[in-house]
UniProtKB/TrEMBL annotation:
Gene3D superfamilies to which the protein is assigned, alphabetical: Tetracycline Repressor, domain 2 (1.10.357.10)
The entry's DNA-binding region: 33-52
Domain of life: Bacteria
UniProt entry keywords in alphabetical sequence: DNA-binding, Transcription, Transcription regulation
Protein name per the record: Transcriptional regulator
Pfam families: CecR_C (PF09209), TetR_N (PF00440)
Organism (species): Geothrix edaphica
InterPro entries: Homeodomain-like_sf, HTH-type_TetR-like_transc_reg, HTH_TetR, Tet_transcr_reg_TetR-rel_C_sf, Tscrpt_reg_YbiH_C
Domain named HTH tetR-type: residues: 10-70
């Protein structure tokens, strides 16, 4: 088949992306071939070159596909958080605690959307995200940076509002610690219960956000 003769077809493109997501998640980047993806999608392998210019382009578009999918899921939540942020700004908390709480709450809800058990993309997406977080590939580093940048920027602003005396290196250290705590609590509740037997795996996100805010805020103020 001549790729240049293939007419654009969104259904075909999406079928290839979904097959690629499944393959990359299950077998990893190196063990996934163009032929394997095409076979799983029930399409001709030449279509991958036509739509994505090769394996690297396909991998990159899988991440774009996932980012668009989760952006659509979190759009309404972002609007809700904006309303809550407005409410928080009225509480007279000038030291940044309210802003920190809003940021933590938004981050936890973002994580909840990415790992929602009712989402059909949850399992392959989770595997792929965790793999990239451990060892990002150059094909998608800029996409990951762009996705994280708003959260990093807001975390820095929160930390500086609470502790304006911190150096840039200290701000980044505490920002990494803050985000790491949120990710750890949100994603590892089941494994925590094996060691921390009194832990509540069903703790509501708002309650978790409040506790993490208290922990971070008081830790920063006493440091």
């Amino acid at each position: 088949m001549n790729p240049s003769a293939v007419p654009p077809c969104p259904d075909t493109r999406d079928a290839l992306l979904e097959a690629a997501l499944a393959c990359f998640a299950k077998y990893g980047y190196d063990a996934t071939s163009i032929r394997l993806v095409a076979s799983m999608a029930g399409k001709n392998s030449s279509l991958i070159s036509y739509y994505f210019k090769g394996k690297e382009g396909l991998y990159r578009e899988v991440f774009r596909y996932l980012l668009a999918h989760f952006a659509a899921k979190t759009g309404e939540r972002d609007a809700l958080e904006a309303d809550r942020a407005s409410d928080d700004s009225k509480d007279g908390d000038g030291d940044g605690r309210a802003r920190l709480r809003t940021h933590i709450r938004r981050l936890l809800r973002e994580l909840d959307a990415h790992f929602d058990t009712s989402d059909p993309l949850r399992v392959p997406a989770s595997r792929l995200w965790l793999s990239e977080l451990q060892s990002p590939r150059h094909e998608v580093k800029d996409l990951l940076q762009a996705r994280m940048e708003p959260f990093v920027r807001e975390a820095r602003a929160c930390l500086r509002a609470i502790r304006p005396d911190l150096s840039p290196a200290e701000v980044d250290f505490w920002g990494i610690t803050l985000h790491g705590s949120c990710i750890h609590h949100a994603l590892m509740s089941e494994i925590h219960c094996l060691a921390w037997t009194a832990a509540d795996p069903s703790l509501a996100l708002d309650a978790m956000a409040e506790r993490l805010t208290d922990f971070t805020y008081h830790g920063l103020r006493q440091h």
